[in-house]
Design brief:
Layout lengths: L7 H14 L2 E7 L5 E10 L4 E6 L3 H8 L2 E8 L2 E12 L6 H11 L9 E14 L9 E4 L2 E2 L2
Antiparallel strand pairs: 1-2, 1-4, 2-3, 3-6, 4-5, 5-6, 6-7, 7-8
Length: about 150
């Protein structure tokens, strides 16, 4: 049996909780020729942006440097948070020590001393969240970077 649709305010709070508490998400990027690439990465949420890190030689990093548009997904198909976003490439010395420490603590590893690792500051432009078909109609919670609820 399908649970009743959550009010938008509850859906937003559930989404913010997932962004705060989940450790990993799926990151979808595309190469210059349009080839899609999907990779799970750890992240840190600061109430406005997500911080990701991966080796600069990885397809995700190469794709984001060439095309900073990406999509991210938390959860599974019956409880999903789907994010459209843009990314800014950062060198390890371009993030604050406290942010780097928070990322390392949450992710369980510190990429700052690893050779060739980059960070990406990801700014959501659209966030959708839904569980079942009864939540599809009102699934957009953030549009053009602004919360709708």
């Amino acid at each position: 049996m399908t649970e009743p649709a959550r009010p938008l305010s509850v859906r937003k709070q559930d989404t913010l909780r997932r962004l705060r508490d989940d450790v990993d998400l799926w990151v979808a990027t595309a190469s210059a020729d349009g080839t899609p690439y999907l990779m799970p990465l750890s992240f840190l949420w600061d109430d406005k942006t997500l911080l990701l890190s991966t080796a600069g030689s990885n397809p995700t990093a190469r794709n984001l440097r060439a095309n900073p548009t990406l999509q991210l997904t938390l959860g599974h198909t019956r409880d999903v948070v789907h994010i459209e976003a843009t990314a800014e490439t950062l060198q390890p010395d371009e993030i604050s020590e406290s942010e780097g420490d928070a990322f390392a603590e949450k992710a369980g590893f510190d990429p700052r001393p690893l050779p060739g690792y980059l960070f990406f500051r990801v700014t959501p432009t659209k966030i959708q969240a839904w569980r079942e078909v009864n939540e599809l109609k009102d699934r957009v919670l953030l549009r053009d970077g602004a919360w709708l609820v």
